[in-house]
Predict the 3D structure of the following.
Amino acid sequence: MADDREYAIINQRLVEKGDKERLRAILREQLIKSGWRDALKLECRRVVQEQGLDNISVDEIIKQVTPHARATIPSDVKQDLLNRIKEIVQNESDSF
Amino acid sequence: MVDPASGSQQQQQPPTLSITVVPLNVLDDPLGNVQGLDGDEDETGGGVLLQPLSEAAILEVSQSIYDDIVDDVILGIVFEVHRGAKLGLTALLEDGVTGDSQCDFDADETTRSSTGGGGETMDFDAASEMLSSVAVNSKKPAECVCPNCQRNMAASRFAPHLEKCMGMGRNSSRLASRRIATSASRQADLVSDDDCDDDDWTASGAGDRQDHRIMTGYVFEGYSS
């Protein structure tokens, strides 16, 4: 797949330039504001209680929580972040 | 995550070779291999230089970067909850921990993205959350488990207990020294049944004390001259 290669290069550039970290901070801030973060925390705790504290692992929590978490991100937050990313990727792509 | 191509290459290498850090410029080498295997387009780029992406490709790359970032944020939260649960912090003060850590995150973000634009609302959110969590905590008495002796006790008694239990602080140092003293004297009783003075204890109880002092003095003089 041709996209993997471009993805690898662009991703590396974003990491090196600190864009990714910045985007992550923006997303986190917006998700806290929207209450998504707290909801996810409750969900995680529910999973932990369900599975029992002794036989729960980080991997297990992630597996159970991720689909729901991804789906519940507010659409305006998602759209905003995607637009920012698209802009940056566009710039990177133009500089090829 | 950096580049799967070079990762797989390292796995294929025999273990005797040393691992070298691959700079970004060399990235076109494994990619060139992939390109050759794929056998599709753009020999004109000749390596690092790639064609500008199409609209669809940009969308796709953006989507995967978005997924990366979202997964990262999720992972951070899961780590936090998992750590809290395993250490028993969640059970202790339900929301107090999250309130504190969120406050930290907010501080980070407001300093990092110094663009303003909602910084005040963030602070307000964090403050109100902290207040509410404090109110919740003050209503129900929290129980603490001592990590040293596994005893259950009220939170207000936890710090003084820990001080004594771990052998720190003024009072407990007295306790600890008494404990050490009793165990030492018990040992001394086992070893020798005459007086348990420090000098005699090392001298293995042979000979007179005066002789011993003179002897050591002589030895020291001999050493110094």
Notes: Chain A has five helices and no strands.
